[in-house]
Amino acid sequence: MTMSQYAAELCALLIEDQFGDLFARIFTTLQRYERLPLPRLKFYSRLTERQLHHGLAAMIQHHLVFHFTSLEDGNTYYAANPQAAYYLIRSGKIIHLVESRLGEYAARVMETILYLGHVPIKHLETLPDLRYLAPAAPNGLVKEEEPEEEQEPQELDTEAGEETNGANGDHAEEVLQKPAPLHSTLKALASHGYIIRVKDAHFQSPEDNYIEAHKAASNRSDIKMLKGKRLTEELLQKTEEILRERTDGDLSEGLMVNGLPRGVKRKIANGTSESASKWHQTDHNGTNGNHADDDEENDWSEDEDGFDNIPMEPSLVLRVNYEKLDVALRNARFVEMAKDDAAPATAEVYETLLRRIEYVTKRCRDTSEIPREGEEGEQFSIPIETYKIVSDVDPHLDLSGCMGPLNPASASVNRRGKRPLENGVNGDNHYEDEDEDTVDDDVSRAYEINQHLQLLEQAPHNLASHVRLSDGIKWRVGFRGLARKLRHLELERLVEMRYGDVALRVLRVLHAKGKLDEKRLQEISLLPFKDLRQTLASMQAGGFVDLQEVPKDAQRQPSKTIFLWYFDPDRVCSSVLEDTYKAMSRTLQRIKFERNLRRDFLDKTERSDVKGNEERWLSEGELEQLQRWRDMEAILLGVVSRLDDMVAVFRDF
Amino acid sequence: MASRVTEIASRLYDACLERFEADHLFYQQDLLALDVIPKGEIDLLLKCAQSLVDQKLFRLLQGANNRLAWKIISRDDAEKLQSLSPDESLVYNVIHSSGRSGVWVRNIQSRTNLHKSILDRCVKSLESKNYIKSVHNVKYPTRKMYMLAGLAPSEDITGGAWFTDGVLDSTFINALAGVIEYKVSTQSWYEVPAADRGRSKRIKTATGMAEVKSESEKTFLPYPANYSGYPTIEWITTEVNKSGVTPVRLGEDSVIQLVQMLCFDKKLVSLNNGLNYKAVKNPVVVKAGFNRKPAAEEEAGSPILGLGKNGMTEAPCGSCPNIRLCSPGAAISPETCEYFDPWYEKVLGF
Predict the structure, then answer these.
(1) A501 touching B (Cβ < 8 Å)
(2) Whether A465 contacts chain B with CB within 8 A
(3) What is the domain range of residue A389?
(4) A542 and A642 fall within a common domain
(5) What is the C-alpha end-to-end distance of chain A, expressed in Å?
(6) Which residue segment(s) compose the domain that B20 sits in?
(7) Do B208 and A419 touch (CB under 8 A)?
(8) B240 and B333: one domain?
(9) ipTM reported for the complex, 2 dp
């Protein structure tokens, strides 16, 4: 994968920020000269052998450097892995995601794996940080006992759990000592696909892997028999197959329970009785006082009693699966889009659907590059049955209260403080009697969920689409279309900020209609000529629209030339992506600069005796200054992370 | 003899006036059928017609199959025409023939074969007598076009309902667009009746901007997907014409144009292949948008971004005009950047 100037600059900055000068030196040398054997690398980087060996070994540990030993000449070549370098910036987001899905402890495990690059399980077992549920920090105590409280009762029988739960509040000390469920956490992470097994091929660049796979494929006896077109076809297919086999470290197989990964926050249990007991449980939890949302924390041991006793293979080496995490992050963006202009309940139903889809989606797309617009076909997710969504969605979610009636006229006729709901027969009862026939209830809920998703299927959302099969309606998501929608949203936000809403209209017209001359453009956009020309000119200067000249004769006189305006989203996207990289690295450089400005002061705050005891050793003015610096650094890093969201949209989704 | 011709001619003219409409094209047999010419004398008819044409009471035209045909001219117009010089009447006829679409000066020249200076004089004198007027063509703004003073220019020339004096009337368009958006919006969202409101406190409005908490405010809910009551073009057209915002009656075509513009603004969306239209925002938000706009412009500086923000719109680098030139160590560099400090001030407040 070749990288542009700004992307390379950014990767080097990130590595320098994270790992220091030595890594950055090696990395930039490799980026500048691409693949190098050790002697050349040593020559170009001007590092000593010792430094290089140490550096490379550690960088390989972090997957920042690919290495490949050629069988032909026996040399080992090193190459930079810009992808891994870039993902350093996303680690915060990843940890946050894992925390919201699987709880604080899982986030800590994830953080450790991210921090170590790749790691065998037996090493994780020895880490003191992961041994207990609560981290060692003294003031984290109160907060951290929360997951534990949830944890314990659910490991036992739910009925018995209530007692323990009630009594649990004052056992903070014991809680701390309780060994953490490392293996079940790892299993949860693995079944979500967030972590994968490290394979040999992961240390080699994708190109090398491809070439090797190609060689292996062409050496196969059944391939050798073929000729001509069939040979190339078969070869391609086999190569892909071998490649997939070699790089696929998926661990989720066999860990899924009923199509759901372990550790999922189950909002509803399957049977009626169970759901009833869950009800009670949450009630009790509520009286316990110290947690706002009951279902929030990790309760994975709930329904996997048998599996839990089998630990994971200790020699298994793990790493983070960025591909899958991108899928999860992308879905989060889709949900955001739904939240923007749909009712919260609708968005929640959508989120549930997307969660189901996430479990079976391995990566954001099959091609390595985003295809050109207009040339990419739609790629649909696996369709999900409505009943699965019904079982996943929060049973307390008020589905019926946020949609108008189908027929407002009849609503006004019998409005007695109660309006007939869209599903007439049993929708209203929902409020009054909770314990009505559950089958009926399920049917009506399925109906309501279908209603919500249908609303999302319609314009202006177009977020889902349905497939009608003989056994009912299934819901799926068209990933490519939505990814495109996200890209355009980001572009449009930029255009709106820079050129105003008039420009936005012009851009959309051009996108919808293709190439247009000014007159036609005016007719459609209904803008005065003056405004239109100004807008177009400034957008052209900014590189958002382009002008094509079509001369009527060979002289190419301007008076006899047709000028057509057009908008090329691919070109604009790639240039905005470059600008985003650049903005990110400039912001990082600014942080460095600001830190240098305050170096003496910051050195003082980082002294081992001052750190942690700031209030004791620093004057009031200094404390204020420190606070300011922290705010400033936070906001700059926040900007970088927001820019990363855009990169994800333009590059990864 | 001459007086007899005049007399018959005037009788013929009166008969034509009675029998034919102003724009009717009539031929020889039509005139003979009027039974004014004694014994159907062709000779006499010829003389009469000629005299009427001379008096500008008849206009000579070429009908189908190259036959001669006439049209009547009202006496008032005829008086006008009689006062014209031959050149002027030639020009007048050309302009008259172009009807409501007007005619370009250069086309008059080629049709009349008059010299440019003579033509200019004729046009000037006709204009000063208020017989013709110059019109502005939207399609060819540089061309000088003329048409009879009494006619209203056709839509081809004016560009439709959206042009005033050949210029796109953006204030009118925006006002009308606002009306349409609001009208459609009232039909696209279900307003929860007052009695129900207490129960639906949790529900946010669609944009998520205004959370409806207080009892006095209105709550709007989206209709289910198969709801079919969204406005159609016809409905919008009648509503717009009822509203009294427009001085003239708008046709459906003009309304479609405007509605499509609103779709490009993502204020409306079309459903069922353009059969129905639905407003994206609910009426309260739409109204709030109108009220906010002028105030925001007064404030200036921070434009309202309807689409929300992203990294590039927030970061100082995103709006930097010189990002292309920026690099460490150069004249414009992250170290010397002057946008960061004001930005800290703005976002952090120091």
Answers:
(1) yes
(2) no
(3) 326-405+437-477
(4) no
(5) 17
(6) 2-73
(7) no
(8) no
(9) 0.74
